[in-house]
Design goal:
The chain has 296 residues and is α+β, with helices and mostly antiparallel strands. 48% of the residues lie in helices and 16% in strands. Keywords: DNA-binding, Transcription, Transcription regulation.
C-alpha cells in the first residue's frame, strides 16, 4: 500500500483537556509521550507548540535539521513544520499547544509574529536556559497545569495570559542570548507577509517578479528586505522552500521521482534531479535511500 503523505495533526487529535480542546492543549511531557505514541513518527501540525524539557536527552529533528535535547532546554514550533524526535526514557517536562486564534483573540497577530523563534528562516527554534530562567518558566507552566486541572471562572483568560507570559519571557531570554537578532525586528511584519506568500505559491510560482508584485515592491526592494533579514536573495529563499518540500516528499511519501517533479511543477524530471543534486549534493534517489537507512 502506498505510504500516505505526512499527517497534519490538529489540536483535537490529542487527548481532550477540560478548557478548550479545539484551541489549546497542555500536558506533562512524560504523560504526553506515553499517551500519544504516534507523534514519534514525522508529522506536521496546524498549531504552535512549546516543548519544555526538564529531564532527559535525545535528538529533535525539525525539517531535516537535528537539534540536541538536553535538560533545561525549550523548543518552539510553528504551524506546518515537520518534526520527530528520539528521546531517552527518563524524559520529563511540559508541552503546550495553542492555535493562532487562541492567542489573537486577546493579543495582536503582530505580537505573535514578533516572536522570532517561530521563524525558521531567521533563527533556530531552541532555547537553552540557565537555572533562574528554567525555574521561572517551569513555574509558569505549573500555573497552566493548575488551571487545566482545576478550571474555574475566566480560566481561558488566565491560560491566554500564562501563554503570553511564557512567550514573552522566552523571547526576552532568546534576545539576551542572541543580541544580534534585535536588528531583525524592524520590518518583521513585511518579511512574514512574504513568507506567507511563498508558502502559498512556491509550488506553482517561481518568478521572483511575482513575489515583488505581491509585496508591492520593486525586485530591488524585495531583495534588500530578504538580504537584510536572512542574508539571502528572494530567489534563494524560494528555491530553499522548493528543495525542502522535495525532501519531505522523498522521505515521507512513496511518490516516484517523476511524480514529485510534476507535483512541484517541473516539466522535466531530469532537470529536477539535476537541480536537487546541485542544491543538496545528492541525487533524489540517493537522498531517499540515505534517509530510509538512517531511520531503520
Amino acid at each position: 500500500m502506498p505510504k500516505a503523505i505526512l499527517p497534519t495533526y490538529q489540536i483535537p487529535d490529542f487527548e481532550k483537556v477540560s478548557v478548550d480542546p479545539q484551541e489549546f492543549y497542555y500536558s506533562r511531557l512524560e504523560k504526553h509521550l506515553q499517551t500519544h505514541l504516534f507523534i514519534q513518527k514525522p508529522h506536521k501540525h496546524d498549531f504552535y507548540i512549546l516543548v519544555f524539557f526538564s529531564h532527559g536527552n535525545g535528538t529533535h529533528i525539525i525539517d531535516f535539521k537535528s537539534y540536541p535535547v538536553t535538560p533545561k532546554s525549550m523548543f518552539f514550533l510553528a504551524p506546518g513544520q515537520v518534526h520527530s524526535w528520539t528521546l531517552s526514557p527518563d524524559t520529563k517536562g511540559h508541552i503546550l499547544f495553542f492555535s493562532q486564534s487562541f492567542y489573537t483573540s486577546t493579543y495582536s497577530l503582530a505580537k505573535l509574529n514578533s516572536f522570532i523563534f517561530f521563524n525558521s528562516n531567521l533563527t533556530i527554534p531552541l532555547l537553552n536556559l540557565d537555572s533562574a530562567q528554567f525555574i521561572k518558566l517551569a513555574s509558569n507552566f505549573e500555573k497552566v497545569e493548575e488551571e487545566i486541572i482545576h478550571p474555574s471562572w475566566s480560566s481561558m483568560d488566565l491560560l491566554k495570559s500564562y501563554t503570553n507570559i511564557l512567550l514573552t519571557l522566552s523571547y526576552r531570554y532568546f534576545l539576551d542570548q542572541n543580541p544580534q537578532l534585535k536588528n531583525q525586528i524592524p520590518n518583521l511584519d513585511q518579511f512574514q507577509k512574504l513568507e506567507k506568500i511563498i508558502e502559498e505559491a512556491f509550488s506553482v510560482q517561481r518568478d521572483v517578479n511575482f513575489y515583488a508584485s505581491q509585496m508591492n515592491m520593486s525586485l530591488k526592494q524585495l531583495n534588500l528586505l530578504t538580504q537584510k533579514k536572512t542574508g539571502k536573495p528572494i530567489s534563494q529563499l524560494l528555491m530553499e522552500r522548493v528543495i525542502l518540500e522535495s525532501k519531505r516528499l522523498l522521505v515521507h511519501s512513496d511518490l516516484s521521482i517523476s511524480e514529485i517533479a510534476f507535483k512541484l511543477q517541473f516539466e522535466d524530471p531530469s532537470y529536477f534531479s539535476r537541480l536537487f543534486k546541485k542544491k543538496t549534493s545528492y541525487s533524489p534517489e540517493k537522498f531517499r535511500l540515505l534517509q530510509q537507512s538512517s531511520s531503520i
